[in-house]
Amino acid sequence: MSAASSLLSEDKFLCSICLDVFTDPVSTPCGHNFCKNCISEHWEMGSRCECPSCKKRFKRGPELQVNTFISEMVSHYKQSAQQRAGSSSEQQAAKPGEVPCDVCTGTKLKALKFCQLCLVSYCETHLEPHLTVSGLKRHQLINPVENLEGRMCAKHDKLLELFCRDDQTCVCMHCSISDHKPHDVVPLKEEYEGRKAELGKTEAEVQQMIQQRQLKIEEFKQSVKVSRGNADRERAGSVRVLTWLKDTIEKMQAEVTEMIEAKHTLIEKQAKGFIRELEQEISELKKKSAELEQLSLSEDHLHLLQNLPSLNAAPPTKGWTEVTVRPPSYEGNVMAALGPLVEMLKIELKKLQPKTELKTAQQFAVDVTLDPDTAYPTLILSGDGKQVHHVDAQKKLPDNPERFSTSLCLVGKQVISTGRFYFEVQVKGKTQWSLGVARQSVNRKGPITIDPQNGFWTLGLRNENEYYAPSVLFSLMSQPEKVGVFVDYEEGLVLFYDVDAADLLYAHTGCCFTEKLLPFFSPSSNQGGKNSAPLIICPVNPPE
Description:
Structural class: alpha+beta
Shape: elongated
Strand order of the largest sheet: 12-13-24-15-20-21-22
Distance between the termini: 68 Å
Largest sheet: 7 strands, antiparallel
Helix content: 25-40%
């Protein structure tokens, strides 16, 4: 049997009173085992009978039964110890860092135990008397220690085997009956077990703190990873769009320059042709002028009269009075070229709009109802507060502060001050409307301008097929019948969806919300019945 296994076996046969191998082991009624003499003396010294292990009390000293099983096991263990003692030649010498036997001469073998009474460390061979000799068996054995001086009382040169709880220091037996006599002094083992339990609890708390911080680290790493991915996608998108825009503008610049130069070249070519013709005619006229001048100087009457008819006839020339070279107009060339670019840029910008999907937005659906106290007097609300339309007749309603006084508008009762918010409105059959959110504090009296600067973030329809938002006007291939409005308060987003097509219609991004928001509605004028269909707040079908 190895030394390790022998030590493991020994722990099973130690009396918890003398901390030595059982001698005449007996069992108490509560099932714990002790040396017969140890438990008898323990009860004789104490004022009451109780089990040292479980503290169970007995009215009188119970009859102790010899535990034959433990006795046989202890006997077997002692025989094994004797056999191990005879095989000391197989033991290894103490290595650096290991406690050597204090008894060995020559080669120091590794110590297995330290006797707190003898103050000596023993190897397996020299430990054998402490396991077999009755007088030595009562000595308290512990695992070998290196720094023996640190375990000795500096004042009494005795082993530190007690702990003073008042002074929080280790003391020897002499200290406990002198300097620390009135103090709460307990065996080291008792304090050790209490402190070890506290350490276990503290260690568990520390481990929990470590796990919490490790989870936080992973959370931060995940946030950085997500940010990195988002940043890479955004950078790639911006590089793509801006590179495309740069290349398109450079190409367009070249095309516009070429077009302008072509116009100029055409005029220049035309002018040069006219100039050549004029220079040719001027040359002919100068030649004619010279001949006439020469003839006018002649004194020969016959010669002048004979040549004058041929020289007097005008040379063939063009009538240049109506001929002009008009510089072309270069205005509008840039605008004409930018028109397609603007449309293409709109398409590219739409690709960069927020990617919040409709099914994600619908998870934040709120049951919105219209607030009748805010409605303009010509707006009619349904009893359930879900529909509104315009009529020509104006009702007599109190002009309370919340009511819109000049605009065909009203707001919902639900307040948006944090988080995300979504609702859907049916716009089927309408030719004009406006939806979105508004600050709770918007001006409701007198003319109002519906734009973000005045606290309105909306999307609207006019003239049957023109959709508009601040500074933006666009048309759609198919008109939505139901519009979803999504607000992310913290992110500063207001998104509008075609619910049936699950397409994003428009996005207000980079908004800075500093106060409460309300759902905003305007069914607009009924236009003589053409736009009489109501705006209807619809229940949101939960996403699949």
